[in-house]
Amino acid sequence: MFERLRYLFALCIVVALVGCQARHPLPQTVTMVIENSPTSLDPRIGADGFSEHIGSLIFDSLVHKDAHFNLQPWLATSWETPDPLTYRFHLRTDVHFQNGKPLTAADAKYTLDSMRDGTVITAKAAALARIDRVDAPDPATLVIHLKLPDASLLWNLSDGAVGIGPEGSGRDFGLHPVGSGPFRFVSQLQDDEVILERNDHSWQPPPAIARIRFAVVPDAITRALELEKGSADVCINCLTADMVSALAKRPNLQVLSGPGTNLNYITFNARDSVLRDLRVRQAIAYAMNRPLIIRSLWRDRARLAESLLPPEHWAWTGDVQQYPYDPAKANALLDADGRKRGNDGVRFHLTMKTSTDETSRLLAMILQQQLRDIGIALEVRSFEFGTFFSDVSKGAFQMYTLRWLGGNEDPDIFHTFDSHRVPPHGTNRGRYVNAELDDLITEAGMSSNQAQRRADYVKVQQILAAELPSINLWYLDAVLVHTKRLGNVTISSSGNFDFLRTATVTDAR
User: Fold this and answer.
1) Alpha-carbon Rg of the chain, whole angstroms?
2) Which strands sit side by side in the sheet containing 193-198, from one edge to the other?
3) Which of 507, 13, 500 is closest to 236 using CA atoms?
4) Sheet architecture: strand order including 470-476
5) Contact call for residues 87 and 150 (beta carbons, < 8 A)
6) pTM, whole model, 2 decimals?
7) How far is the C-alpha of 198 from the C-alpha of 83, rounded, in Å?
8) What is the C-alpha to C-alpha distance for residues 462 and 249, in angstroms, rounded to an integer?
9) What is the pLDDT, as a whole number, of residue 24?
10) Consecutive H or E run containing 377
11) Residue 385's pLDDT is what?
């Protein structure tokens, strides 16, 4: 089956599908194909990868993650902590929003306050829950007072987490966002495109690219064809491995790749009458042949994952319960649980939701086959991303698959399983509850002792591996495909869009 799928997709790329319609952008426009529209370009609200990656080009944060995930000055030139409950930031005085208004501490205060006081309803508010109050004593000074120590505060104020918008921005700000970043917002057409232009008044070095069109192309074959024809210039982490291999042979294209941190995972609904049973979740984990899926679906452009954190992280541990491929053990668990096969060989039915992303659907199809071997009939239902994301946020699912796009680079990611962070107050979409885990996450987040924090996070990872509210599948390699029209292209392990800040472009197509 896997070889046949590989052949079909490679064939689809090389055939001349001349009927595929291409839009011809203006000269000096770079077209980047993406799978889905951002859910919100309000940096206080948008929590999906496309919202955060595009938003980071429009908005600036107080601090910035460098290539090694260390936090560096950005809008804040420096900061100090006179005591564990106080952070004092000193802001740049040469920054203006794209509408010409100076960016001051009052804007930063309003951005944080509006996320906390209900001005906007956002899952990101949970990351700021330990803030007591925010002061702006003068235009260049921002003071954050905490109720409790928060070791992840700086990370939660970095790019992708919170971008600073103008004071007074309301709930409809995402429709006409105004930031201070290197690109300014021009327009968005839902499920079609987002257009940005260079912000010539940015305090940062001006980008060489004058205009970016993010073209929403849900179908992976079409994305590959757009690149092959030159009607699109770049995509990152948006193609199957077979498509990447085929496109690498094209003389007008170049492929960059390296170990990545983006994580594929499956989440279970802990309130579901079937999946709240640990033995069922464990049986599913044992029934999955993850190494085979990596070889077949990703051509080994991925690493097995046993944790949300990437292996390079200081808090990562591999000392957790493992689930190697073992269908006999999976069957034994279900037998012991009293879930007998019917005359048709089926023990029970489950439904798995995915977006229309091609690799997510292929993963679900493969999992459908593997679970059939242990008597589970899996129905796969795919939806456009907005509907899919709404359903998983509301808890309207049994199982779903998604990716963490960079958010798993800080241990604050474990708040995903905090019982107090069910949407809309956080990202615990599986509604998992474990009081011991909550206490460990809270304790680790308050400690300034990294050794103690690591000990707590090791226990957190061990609990999650034992109880399996979700299955960590693999860390995808970061893979960027671009036309040779683009130069000076770099790639980050998180797969963000920062390369657009420094890439160069020629007019030739």
Assistant:
1) 23
2) 183-189, 193-198, 211-216, 29-34, 234-236, 478-483, 253-258
3) 500
4) 302-304, 470-476, 263-268, 399-404, 348-355, 376-383
5) no
6) 0.77
7) 41
8) 43
9) 45
10) strand 376-383
11) 87
> Which residue intervals of 210-357 are DSSP H helices?
220-229, 241-247, 278-287, 290-298, 327-336
As a residue count, the chain comes to 509
How many Å separate Cα 421 from the centre of its chain? 18
Helix (H) / strand (E) containing 112: helix 105-116
Inter-residue contact 308 to 406 (CB < 8 Å) = no
Strand 211-216 vs strand 29-34: parallel, antiparallel, or unpaired? parallel
Determine the pLDDT at residue 4: 43
Look up residue 122 and give its amino acid. T
Host H or E run for residue 217: none
Residue from 126, 67, 60, 81 nearest 413 by CA: 126
Cβ atoms 235, 32 nearer than 8 A: yes
| Cβ partners under 8 Å of residue 177, min gap 6 | 41, 42, 43, 55, 58, 59, 165, 185
State the pLDDT at residue 509: 54
> How far from chain centre, in Å, is Cα 478?
13
**Residue 139: how many CB atoms within 10 A of its CB?**
14
Q: Which whole-number Å values give the CA distances from 21 to 188, 217, 437, 488, 490, in the listed order?
A: 20, 12, 51, 29, 29
Q: Residues 279, 280, 283, 284: is their CA dihedral positive or negative?
A: negative
Tokens of 360: 């997510």
The residue ranges of the chain whose pLDDT is under 50 are 1-24
Residues 6+ apart with CB under 8 A from 454: 314, 315
Pairwise CA distance, residues 106 & 141, whole Å: 9
Q: Would you state the torsion angle of the CA atoms of residues 392, 395, 399, 404, taken in this order, to the nearest 10 degrees?
A: 40
